[in-house]
């Protein structure tokens, strides 16, 4: 099975060509060019380096978010157009889940996050179930401290593997520093922000299970401020009033 995987969710995008779970070639978006300019030539370079042509691709895999509005739309619109013309299937995957697949397999839970700008993060918590990850709650946008508190509460004291393309977003917070002083914080595993490879591998696993996405139902995942963040802010405000 030949797969073409796209990640245009933020400025650090990439495309990968895979044969089954083996990566043949990856091209990283290491330029300031808009995706509307960069994407198709990058795909052409990746295919040529893989010894393939576009007609050889069996499955299109696209990250459906979370990420920037424009970036996510470019990737999804592209694969939808291809599917309509070629009749080839699409697999839509979460960028955060693809990130989580790289985490320490020994931990029972995985907390994955990436920079969402404005001192917030895109994030999600997953529970390991054998070789699979089961998401707890929704993917959200939240302050790092809020996600840490929510993830620890919902992991029930079990070991959590923290992984991020932007580990400093958590590691530089007062809350994380305080946990480190107590010997409880551990570390945030850094991951490459160029996630097309992981997105393609996750897409391959889903494709083997026939978990394809109808092009008409493939939509961008623009996360909203979560109930977890609202509850966390309420608790912080109540604590502040009590302390005052």
Task: Tell me what you see in this structure.
The protein is α/β, with parallel strands linked by helices and 244 residues long. Helices cover 38% and strands 27% of the residues. Strand 1 and strand 2 form a beta hairpin. The mean pLDDT is 91.
Radius of gyration computed on alpha carbons: 19 Å
CATH superfamily of the largest domain: ATPase, nucleotide binding domain
The structural class is alpha/beta
Helix content: 25-40%
CATH fold name of the largest domain: Nucleotidyltransferase, domain 5
Outline: elongated
Whole-number tally of structural domains? 2
Figure out the total of helices: 8
CATH architecture grouping of the largest domain: 2-Layer Sandwich
Keywords:
244 residues; alpha/beta; Nucleotidyltransferase, domain 5; 2 domains
Topology:
Layout: E1 2-7, E2 14-19, E3 22-28, H1 35-50, E4 59-63, H2 69-86, E5 90-93, H3 95-100, E6 109-117, E7 120-129, E8 132-142, H4 144-154, E9 160-164, H5 168-171, H6 174-181, E10 188-190, H7 196-208, H8 227-243
Parallel strand pairs: 1-4, 4-5, 6-9, 9-10
Antiparallel strand pairs: 1-2, 2-3, 6-7, 7-8
